[in-house]
């Protein structure tokens, strides 16, 4: 089956060489049982590749299941994948078959495999190595014949260095790597996708499709599209339903393209280029925490009379303490210390607590989460991708901070 036929069957839009190569590799490996690992950002369409592999393999008449590993709570992921026996845990009133048992002879697509807990990773490795698994609460070894295709938007080698992913599992999954390019690297496909989404919307609601002016198209093609194809479709639908005019100019377009995330520039351009946006944010926050701790120490020392400050401070200080007039100067005099007249000194402390609270890591993290949720209109998966964390982690933080968006 040629690439054009594949694209028509699965409604794949685009002619980018890297996209074509990904499809070619998927077709070539389909009839084998080799494990495939698909790499790509969220919203790039990674879920199409496993379907191509399954439908063009000898397993096409078997079961196909797509499991989002990041959306299943850590306490139940083993039960979902491998099943459990009755009474294995609280609430297990009956025995249950897992996906590896039900999909025997078929294909399992493990999306967001980088979010699997380490204990589950060990179980998965055993299945991939010898086709064996054990249900939760059982001691009986069972066999299965399942083709595994995995996908992730996580940098797995980086996760391995941080101890979050097993290196042996990575090499077992990465037998055949397939990379889906982000939309910003497929600029030639952006206009095709826009016209497709605009046409689909027009057909669905019986209206004329919107179109971009040449200047607006340039803006469209140069936008970063952090949410990739999913974000492009959402923006196209928003414009189609809200704007009365069908000719979209850059001025109109600016109302629908969120401002790109910008973070403070750190010293050393090369250092900044090697860091992800999340790493930069964490570095800024930790530097801020360090400054706060130093300021807190200064306040305590001043309160205890342990710090000597020079006379006649005229500029308004930017720290959490305001110092006006002169400050006490100790003078050695044999057995005791004599100080200048207290009338010549005035030290005024502004309450530091409110400022420290407002600059705490917890508050800043909460503020960033709220901004991400508002940016994507409460869509938690998109917000989690923006923050570089899993949906499960985002749910926990929303509950911890009692965030209501």
Summarize the structure.
The chain contains 18 helices and 13 strands.
Q: What this model shows, in words?
A:
This protein has 405 residues and is an alpha/beta fold. The chain is globular. The longest helix is centred in the C-terminal third of the chain and has 27 residues. 25% of the residues are buried. Helix 6 crosses helix 8. It is built from 18 helices and 13 strands. The strands form 5 sheets. A 5-stranded parallel beta sheet has the order 2-3-6-1-7, with helices on one face. About 16% of the residues have low confidence.
Q: Uncertain regions: pLDDT < 50 for 5+ in a row? A: 262-275, 307-357
In percent, how helical is the residue content?
Answer: 40-55%
State the end-to-end CA separation. 47 Å
Please state how the strands of the largest beta sheet are arranged side by side.
2-3-6-1-7
Strand content: 5-15%
Q: What's the main sheet like?
A: 5 strands, parallel
Radius of gyration: 29 Å
Mean pLDDT: 82
How many E strands? Answer: 13
Shape: globular
Q: Based on the structure, what is the oligomeric state of the protein chains?
A: single chain
Total DSSP helices: 18
- Structure class: alpha/beta
């Amino acid at each position: 089956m040629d690439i054009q036929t594949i694209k028509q069957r699965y409604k794949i839009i685009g002619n980018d060489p890297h996209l074509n190569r990904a499809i070619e590799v998927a077709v070539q490996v389909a009839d084998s049982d080799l494990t495939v690992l698909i790499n790509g950002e969220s919203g790039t369409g990674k879920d199409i590749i496993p379907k191509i592999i399954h439908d063009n393999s000898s397993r096409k008449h078997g079961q196909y299941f797509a499991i989002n590993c990041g959306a299943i709570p850590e306490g139940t992921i083993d039960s979902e994948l491998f099943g459990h026996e009755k009474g294995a845990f609280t609430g297990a009133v009956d025995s249950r078959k897992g996906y590896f048992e039900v999909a025997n002879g078929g294909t399992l697509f493990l999306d967001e495999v980088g979010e699997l807990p380490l204990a589950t990773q060990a179980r998965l490795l055993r299945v991939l190595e010898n086709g064996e698994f054990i249900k939760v609460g059982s001691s009986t070894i069972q066999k299965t014949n399942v083709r595994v295709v995995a996908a992730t938007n996580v940098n797995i080698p980086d996760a391995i260095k941080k101890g979050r992913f097993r290196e042996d599992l990575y090499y077992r999954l990465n037998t055949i790597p397939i990379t889906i390019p982000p939309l910003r690297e497929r600029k030639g496909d952006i206009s095709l996708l826009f016209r497709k989404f605009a046409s689909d919307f027009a057909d669905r609601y019986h209206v004329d499709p919107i179109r971009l002016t040449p200047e607006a198209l340039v803006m469209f093609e140069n936008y970063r599209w952090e949410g990739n194809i999913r974000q492009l479709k959402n923006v196209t639908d928003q414009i189609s339903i809200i704007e009365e005019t069908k000719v979209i100019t850059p001025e109109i377009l600016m109302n629908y393209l969120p401002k790109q995330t910008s973070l403070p520039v750190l010293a050393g351009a090369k250092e900044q280029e090697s860091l992800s946006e999340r790493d930069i944010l964490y570095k800024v926050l930790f530097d801020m925490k360090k400054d706060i701790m130093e300021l807190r120490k200064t306040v305590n020392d001043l309160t205890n009379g342990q710090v000597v400050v020079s006379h006649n401070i005229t500029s308004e200080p930017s720290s959490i303490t305001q110092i006006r007039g002169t400050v006490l100067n100790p003078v050695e005099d044999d057995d005791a210390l004599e100080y200048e007249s207290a009338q010549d000194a005035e030290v005024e402390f502004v309450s530091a607590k409110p400022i420290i609270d407002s600059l705490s890591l917890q508050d800043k993290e909460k503020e960033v989460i709220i901004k991400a949720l508002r940016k994507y209109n409460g869509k938690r998966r998109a917000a989690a991708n923006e923050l570089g964390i899993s949906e499960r982690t985002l749910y926990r933080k929303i509950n911890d901070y009692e965030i209501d968006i």
